[in-house]
Amino acid sequence: MSPTFDAFIGFYPTTDLAATHDFYVGTLGLTLARDQRTCHIYAVAGGGFLGFCERGSVALPPSVVLTLVTEDVDGVYERLVAAGVAAEAAPKHNAEYGIYHFYAQGPSGERVEVQRFYK
């Protein structure tokens, strides 16, 4: 019998948990689901979670991407740029993957993608 899973958590390192909290709650609007002192877990729609744990150093390769899906890609882009968040480029269409998206940089250098699927 296959196990039944209720949610997914992806954990990532951060060098500054307070800045990470400000970014994911204050700028992106996620909700803190669990405060485990040195780790914070944020709720994402659909039963998913992003977890960040304080570490002395962070070395995520650029191939590691935290992707958030929304219909309001342009609105999120504008909010991030207004908050001074570095974006790689303005949102654009990607026909190969059938998405509209952009990449930004999180507080610990993590690559954050915001996208929507073509309908």
From TrEMBL:
Q: Pfam families given for it?
A: Glyoxalase
Which residue numbers delimit the VOC domain? 4-117
Recorded superkingdom? Bacteria
Q: Note the coiled coil stretches, chain numbering.
A: none
Can you say what this protein is called?
A: VOC domain-containing protein
**Annotated organism of origin:** Deinococcus radiopugnans
